[in-house]
Amino acid sequence: MAASCLPCTWLPAFELDHALEPLLLLSSSRRLKLISPLSCNNSNSTSFGICNGFSTIRKRRQSHANQAAAYSASDGKTTAVSAKSEKVAPEVKRRVVVTGLGAVTPLSDDAHLYYTKLLEGVSGISQIEGFDCSELPTRIAGEIKTLSTDGLVSPKHAKRADNYLIYALIAGKKALADAGITEQVSGELNKNRCGVLIGTAMGSMRALKDGIDAIKISHKKMSPFSVPYSMTSMASAVLAMDLEWMGPNYAISSACATSNCCILTAANHIIKGDAVSSSSSLADSIQNSLKDTTFVKWQDLMLCGGSDGIIIPEGIAGFIACNILSRRNSDPTKASRPWDSDRDGFVMGEGAGVMLLEELEHAKRRGADIYAEFMGGSFTCDACHKSESRLDGFGAVACVESSGLGAVACMEKALTNSGVSREDVNYINAHATSTRVGDPREFKAVMHCFGQNPELRMNSTKSMTGHLLGAAGAVEAIATVKAIQTGWIHPNINLENPDKDVDTRVLVGPKKERLDIKVAMSNSFGFGGHNSSILFAVHK
């Protein structure tokens, strides 16, 4: 009879656990009598599962107790833990604010001067000088002509590393300086609670090319730096090494949506944190070996953003082959013209944008200046075309389906995740790249979500910087935060003959405009159907 009531071997593990729970209440001798007909010493797989089931349940209970103890230790609190009941303190909503800005752009390598030039309507697009492009149909870009690495990048990295890594290091360290994180303040930080998340769309094309050229001659010509400098995570890694920050450190690469994905994910490290180790013995051994190192659930500070630098022959030629670059070579400053009917493609840019996100109470304790509050965001995928957005639903980026694809779904999800009312969003820094297809589609998507708001204003930073690929979202997020701080939004330059599919009452004109921003959204959409939207607001 005992054997007949035992669970079958094909039951899922959780069902087996529940089936065995009543048996655990019996004495050990009684349990042995019940399961002895199917001893673990015989070949019956059912009995093997049962015997292991008792062990699994005990281990799970002990694991839960260990987890609670580890969580208590990490927070510096004493919490009573038992197998029967656990007292869990209510989780406090952690808020994230922006306290530091760092930018390397075609306009300036100072975040504040960069925004001043945006407000003035200055274009950073010019003839390419970094290489001979006389034979190419596109010979213009948002190229960084000069950049000092003194005191920010070590001589060895300045000599060996690709531009994208150098840009990221400079922008990251300038964001820290802007936040008032001096050497003295840095020494007082818990560096286990400080992380770096800087992504790139393209990484180091130059390192790959140099490796390919070398191997054609001989494997002995390969540089030992070819592999590490080709890694997309190297910018985050080197910056963390320089700062000795021991929190989360990695890179996200999602084409032109890279920076937004990094910013949102970094914020979640502060808001939601990481799982605490479930093995107290492992935690104890590591803590003992590291002395002053403790396991933490949340991060206090995250440097995040993106960097790209592919204004090299292979980079420009590759995008020319995609037939999406402007060929207005005779008038570079007029080439990038989002929503204008005479646009003929986007203009390549380069640079990096990094912002310091910080937990609100941590920022207050150190007396930090707060630019804005990060409200939340979202990312989705069209899963449709390598370089264009979906054509169904409301068109292109405006797909409204139950599966949640498209930018409308992304913007709607961002509102839900952040708890922001659509009526409060009155400024949008658009992705708008100056392509024939993308600009009107994004406009239509935005109007679907926010068209009922009479205060809505929208502009495109790319009209002056060009398209910085993986760094675009970060430098545009910086522009968005500066708009909140200053109360001024920058113009859309070159919008001389607006496309018939757009409402010019929503688009900012050729001059900067005063705007009391309630909530601002910054969009970035990328090849592969990557959609991202992030939200900022005035800190109150």
Detailed description of the structure:
- Residues 93-538 form the Ketosynthase family 3 (KS3) domain.
- This protein is an alpha/beta fold.
- The chain folds into 2 domains: 3-75, no CATH class; 98-276 and 297-537, Peroxisomal Thiolase, Chain A, domain 1 (3-Layer(aba) Sandwich), CATH 3.40.47.
- It is built from 18 helices and 14 strands.
- The chain has a 10-stranded mixed sheet with strand order 5-4-6-7-1-8-14-13-9-10, sandwiched between helices.
- Helix 16 links the parallel strand 9 and strand 10 (457-459).
- Helix 1 (13-24) packs across helix 3 and helix 6 (163-178) packs across helix 10 (234-243).
- The longest helix is centred in the first third of the chain and has 31 residues, at 45-75.
- The chain is globular, with a radius of gyration of 27 Å.
- The N and C termini lie far apart (68 Å).
- The N- to C-terminal Cα distance equals 68 Å
The backbone outline, from C-alpha atoms, is globular
Q: Main β-sheet, in a few words?
A: 10 strands, mixed
Number of strands: 14
Secondary-structure-derived class: alpha/beta
Helicity level, as a percent range?
25-40%
Question: Which assembly state applies to the chains in this document?
Answer: single chain
- The CATH topology of the largest domain is given as Peroxisomal Thiolase, Chain A, domain 1
Q: What is the CATH homologous superfamily assignment of the largest domain?
A: Thiolase/Chalcone synthase
Which strand order do you get reading across the main beta sheet? 5-4-6-7-1-8-14-13-9-10
CATH class of the largest domain: Alpha Beta
Pfam family, one: Ketoacyl-synt_C
InterPro entries: Beta-ketoacyl_synthase, Ketoacyl_synth_AS, Ketoacyl_synth_C, Ketoacyl_synth_N, PKS_Beta-ketoAc_synthase_dom, Thiolase-like
Enzyme class: transferase
Organism: Citrus x changshan-huyou
